[in-house]
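Justification of computing resources. Each target in the renewal requires a structure prediction run like the one illustrated here; the chain below, 242 residues long, is used simply to show the kind of job we budget for.
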Amino acid sequence: RFLLRMLPAEVRLQMASGPKYAVETEARVHTLSLRLPPETTSALVRACRQRQVTVSNLLNAALLLAVVRHLLTGHTGRQRGYAFADLRPHLQPPLPAQNLGCYIAMMPYIVPVGPHSDVWTLAGAVQAEIYRLTKRGDKFIAALLSKNLVEMFIRFKAVRMGAAALSYQPVRFAERYGDIRLLDLHSFVTNNGIGPLFTGTARILFGALTCDFLAMDCDMDAATAQTVAAEVQEILETVSNS
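Resulting structure tokens:
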């Protein structure tokens, strides 16, 4: 039933006009990071609360919009992205905080987007789609089927998984873990030739929002990848002042 519910949107996506990126067999990666200072991060979180949009959905919208503006120029149709739902709070019995580990679900969403889309409107559309999936309990089904979904894309090698994917980790980090003092943290999503054009992880560490991005040289050069990351930062800085 989960796959059947996804089918109509998938058909519309594949029939839409616009650039299609080829599946690649090998590539090297570009890694990029951006950081918003604590005062800008606080303003961003306040703006999200006022708009009743989660930080995760705003970040996904900002990345998707930047990708459309610089990698899918002229596209005004639908695009697929991926957000990630934290399922650890739903574990029974619950795990104590000192136990490391994650349990997440890869949540695909398909939304209309163009280069001139308003980021708050887009974030609202992403949020509505994610809420629709989670309300039906699809986040638990997605966790079970994520491996099968990726294997299907790899097996057929016909289309890319999507335009963008971003995982926001709303974790409160401690300054020390035993003898280890935490100074900074970066993480990058493993990608491959059938994966999204731009992937990212994000977290708030010591009051500052940090985003780490990964892109492949078969899709863009280093300068273009930097342009996309800079566009994301500009979008976030702009909305933090809204």
